[in-house]
Amino acid sequence: MRWGRTLGIGVGTALLLGATLVSSAPGTAKEPVRILLVGDSVTQGSAGDWTWRYRLWRHLVGSGVRVDLVGPRDDLLDNVTGEFGSHAYLDPAFDQDHAARWGMFFAGQDRPIGELVDEYHPDVVIEILGVNDLAWTDATPEGVTGDARQFVEDARAADPDVDVVLGALPQTWISGVERYDESLPVLAAELDTDASDVVTATAPGPFAEGVDTWDTAHLSASGEVKVAAGVADALAGLGIGSPYPRPLPDVPLGPRLPAQLSARAGDGEAELSWVSPPGATAAYVWLRDTTDGESWSRLPYPLPGPTWTAGDLVNGHAYEFRLQSEKGSVAAEDLYSNVVTVTPGPTP
């Protein structure tokens, strides 16, 4: 259902007011727009993330939309311990409800979509699934497209009026993803009806592995922005909110909380220990000999921590150390731990 239709706007008025009234329809409704987000790790996110869910929610609220994200979960995965139940969002001040889980497949959903629709009564279901089917099973792109079709049919069996957003997969470097993504607009056009709209959401490109992701699949901050933008644009096409602003905002990458560093001097060495920020998987060590007036230099490889001993230091010289945290392949941009100063010397 296009949300603008609920206003009963005449054609002449619509021509005069255009998308402004259509976009504001959910904001003036008596009830908030209920949105169910179904997906895998890309949608759930991990410790230390904002998540694209956060960025979408912020955008919709900023557009004047009364929105209620719904679903049985509100957590992240702690990517360091591998445990679910983390709430280490970089900014927890948003509606965290969702129905996503790391490792979820179309062919292996935690709960059938019909059951979720029946329980949570969403107005819109946003789905981004399929990459695990393509990467970890023998599923073909055509087979996954069939799964997406069945997903829509099952959602409609629970609520014939529910709208569905089919999310294209951003990891186009994974085999089969491009063919699957190309099938979605055709599928959406075929399934779209007056009562139940089906549209697609595609993250604006380019989408680069190792930049928009911190490994082969999972979103960095810039990837979150791009996925949220694609979904926001799709919702705007339904009359919910406005398109995501262009140009897309530049956002800093890597962990956005600093590590907490301490150090102990030894004979020709310094023993470092630290507490990493949520989600960080390693840290680069930076050091300089201030006695000799050296500039900062970074070790060529990240260290998993939480301890490391710097050797071959000159006794009596003052050394400064700091850390630059990293999540996967993405190091924090211009964000460092506290600086510690160590003066090695003979131990008693």
From TrEMBL:
The keyword Hydrolase applies. The keyword tRNA processing does not apply. It comes from the Bacteria. InterPro entries: Ester_Hydrolysis_Enzymes, FN3_dom, FN3_sf, Ig-like_fold, SGNH_hydro, SGNH_hydro_sf. Keywords: Carbohydrate metabolism, Glycosidase, Hydrolase, Polysaccharide degradation. This is Fibronectin type-III domain-containing protein. Residues 254-347 form the Fibronectin type-III domain.
